[in-house]
Design a protein that fits this description.
Length: about 130
């Protein structure tokens, strides 16, 4: 499949709800929206139709209704979004992005532990090559 158009915030929220339920009607997707969502039913319906047009969602007719399913995996969308952001903002260079995150966000001790583990794993993998 070719490159899909990027997602808006609203489309992303609706797609996340659909990923959570795996498949569903507009009503089921609407019910799966977070409690703090300010979207009404017709807005969710509009976003689902846009997602279908953009290739992020597929639909199957069941009687008079449509059942929607994610057309792409969550991990694929995350990878594409991060890669696009990295290319656009940091000229494709990872270290400046990581440095920015570390310098401008509070890193918890738990996150530092995870980051340290990731760096150690990368070192081991490079030594094995």
């Amino acid at each position: 499949m070719g490159e899909r158009p990027p997602l808006s915030r609203g489309e992303t929220a609706v797609l996340k709800a659909l990923w959570d339920i795996a498949k569903g009607s507009i009503s089921e997707i609407f019910a799966a929206m977070p409690d703090d969502s300010t979207m009404d039913y017709s807005t969710v319906q509009t976003y689902v139709r846009r997602l279908e047009t953009k290739g992020y969602v597929t639909a199957t007719r069941v009687g008079r209704n449509k059942v929607y399913r994610p057309g792409v995996r969550r991990s694929q969308v995350i990878t594409e979004a991060v890669d696009e952001f990295l290319d656009r903002i940091f000229d494709g260079e990872m270290v400046p992005m990581v440095r920015h995150l570390v310098d401008n966000r509070r890193v918890t001790p738990e996150e530092l532990e995870v980051l340290t583990s990731l760096v150690e794993r990368l070192r081991e993998e490079q030594n094995d090559e």
